[in-house]
Design goal:
Radius of gyration: 21 Å
CATH architecture of the largest domain: 6 Propeller
Number of helices: 3
CATH topology of the largest domain: Neuraminidase
Strand order of the largest sheet: 4-8-7-6-5
Number of domains: 2
Helix content: under 10%
Strand content: 35-45%
């Protein structure tokens, strides 16, 4: 059974600023580079070339401080942020944070890449949703897949698919149990829960808020977040013998790039059109990688083109950047929801409901006169069930907030 592990690392702030616009910037969880399998280091890699471009975190070398995210007290539970090795990581490019969950710990941790000073700043949240004392060493319960989706939230999945969790990424991180993933009827003998075919690996996301599971044994599943239904859509061919697909990320051209924790054979890339892997020529073969994480989404170019050609003057939806819920109830169950304009200045505001490609479906102008004003938005009875984005801007088209809603 192949399990991928992750490690988080950070660069000097100036280095990150210089490469902030590089769409191929990716974080890799690696060993020490001596053909070892201690995945506790974080390195930066150019996913387009497969070249290591710098060290972010090196165990026993990099100075750091780790704090409880809620109490801000120093956390001394483990000597290193990645002490027990890591099976899942995700990069939030909007807030420049690298999230990960270590093996056998039951904590969500993140590295603040914006933090200044000589010590790297890590934060941690303990949650029974990630692990319990009774199941700390249960391989089935270890989280081995993680990604930041188009809605701005993080998603993590354990090995046997019994628990999909969602976590927010703002100042107050909250973790929600979404339940087990469910096999699509077409999966038949290749279950997303099967240990031999489907454990381990990584997750990536597309611009329409769908997730993709790439198992360590080369099987690929699409995952609908709302229904939690996983459908097997392909099998990766063209990889070397014993090459486990433990890390996955999207390059700037929309290819899926994979890395192996078991072999030192470099990086491979493939397209969801044919699932045929080809080597990234000249890629690094010194470090194996247990995880890859970057901020790219599948089908981003297609989604951007849809917005451009569908409504030329409509500005793209901004993912959720805060944890404050302005809209309720959510999910929407009775064709209406309320928007809380608390702390907003008096004036006119534009409320736009779009699909996940950014296409506007409903536009409304709201006049706010009082502090804490709540406005009700009524949807037509024919409004289709599904996931949408609600964007609120002021009269000058300045962004106020965006939140995802689910219409049931």
């Amino acid at each position: 059974m192949n399990i991928k592990l992750l490690l988080s690392t950070t660069f000097i702030a100036t280095c990150f600023s210089a490469s902030a616009q590089d769409a191929n910037r990716t974080f890799a969880i690696t060993g020490d580079g001596n053909h070892d399998f201690m995945w506790m280091n974080i390195r930066q890699v150019d996913i387009g070339t497969g070249k290591i471009t710098g060290d972010v975190y090196q165990r026993d070398k990099t100075a750091f401080v780790m704090k409880d995210a809620d109490t801000k007290a120093n956390s001394l539970a483990h000597r290193r942020p990645t002490e027990t090795m890591v099976a899942a990581a995700a990069y939030d490019k909007n807030q420049n944070k690298l999230f990960f969950t270590p093996m056998r710990v039951g904590e969500l941790r993140w590295l603040d890449l914006n933090a200044k000073g000589d010590e790297q700043k890590y934060y941690t949240v303990t949650s029974s949703l990630l692990n319990t004392n009774e199941a700390l060493n249960d391989e089935a319960n270890q989280f081995s897949r993680m990604v930041i989706a188009a809605d701005g939230n993080g998603y993590a999945l354990n090995n046997d698919g019994s628990r999909l969790v969602r976590f927010t990424t703002g100042k107050k991180v909250t973790i929600t149990d979404l339940g087990p993933v469910i096999d699509d009827e077409s999966n038949k003998t290749v279950s997303v829960k099967n240990k031999c075919t489907s454990w381990g690996g990584d997750m990536i996301a597309d611009a329409y808020n769908k997730l993709y599971i790439i198992s360590a044994n080369h099987y690929v599943f699409s995952l609908d977040v709302e229904t939690r239904v996983a459908k097997q859509i392909g099998y990766i061919t063209g990889l070397p013998a014993a090459y486990s697909t433990n890390g996955a990320a999207v390059d700037k051209d929309g290819n899926v790039v994979v890395a192996s924790a078991n072999t030192f054979a470099g990086y491979y890339k493939f397209s969801l059109k044919d699932f045929v892997a080809t080597p990234v020529e000249g890629s690094d073969m010194v470090y194996n990688a247990s995880d890859l994480a970057n901020g790219n989404l599948l089908y981003q170019k297609e989604a951007d083109a849809a917005k451009t050609y569908a409504v030329a003057d409509f500005k793209p939806v901004v993912p959720v950047l805060t944890n404050e819920a302005h809209i309720y109830p959510n999910p929407v169950t009775n064709s209406e929801f309320r928007i809380n304009f608390e702390d907003q200045l008096a004036g006119k505001y534009n409320v736009t409901i779009t699909d996940l490609s950014g296409k506007p479906l409903v536009n409304r102008v709201v006049t706010v006169n009082t502090k804490g004003q709540v406005e009700t938005v009524v949807l037509s009875k024919t409004f289709a069930k599904g996931m949408y984005m609600v964007k609120v801007t002021d009269a000058n088209n300045k962004f106020i907030f965006t939140e995802r809603i689910v219409v049931q």
